[in-house]
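[agent] plan:
  1. take the single chain provided in the ticket
  2. run structure prediction with default settings
  3. attach structure tokens to the ticket
  4. add a short note for the reviewer (M.T.)
[agent] executing step 1
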Amino acid sequence: MAREMKDQELQSPVDLPGAPIEGHRPLAWTAATIAVAAFLLLCANAGTLAAWVDEKPVTETQQQASALAGEWKATMDRYGITAPREALHGWWKQLQSLRFGDEAPDATQ
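[agent] step 2 finished; step 3 output follows
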């Protein structure tokens, strides 16, 4: 419950309104937002998903998951959905490889 403010006080950005907003479904809105975000990440980061699956110990399930992830990545590549992420990743790797003066390359790369 929000308290009444005095004239000399400034309103805090974290003060909540006293009455709840009626007519909205916050749980449905939150679930839909999470589902949309998860789907967009699944599409845009298909290459990362495929690489992650390929890092797992080899089992029958991992091989099936690797084949599915590879097909998913190929589909997303075909539609160009992974292009922005791959471009950013390429720029990041170029920046990572920059050296100053006679600095030796990092052996951990």
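[agent] step 4 note for reviewer: The first helix runs from residue 26 to 44.
[agent] ticket updated
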